[in-house]
Amino acid sequence: ILDLKVDPELGGILRGKEGYFPAYHMNKEHWISVDLRKIEKLDELAGLIDGSFKSTQ
Question: How far apart are CA 50 and CA 57, in angstroms?
Fold first, then answer.
């Protein structure tokens, strides 16, 4: 499981996809949890990680 900070609109879209959930113990509007076992598009995940990093600096 990986927690990532995302734009609330993007988070709403992602939570509708398999492997993405409201972030446990985090602000559920701005954070999502990702089940890495269910992610097939690693490029998409890499972009989300990069965006999360940039938004928390």
Answer: 11
- Decide: helix, strand or coil at residue 34: strand
Residues 6+ apart with CB under 8 A from 2: 33, 34, 36, 49
3-state class (DSSP) for residue 38? helix
pTM value? 0.85
Count of H helices and E strands in the chain?
2, 3
39 and 19 Cβ atoms separated by less than 8 Å: yes
Q: What are 10-28's pLDDT values in tens digits?
A: 999 999 999 999 998 888 8
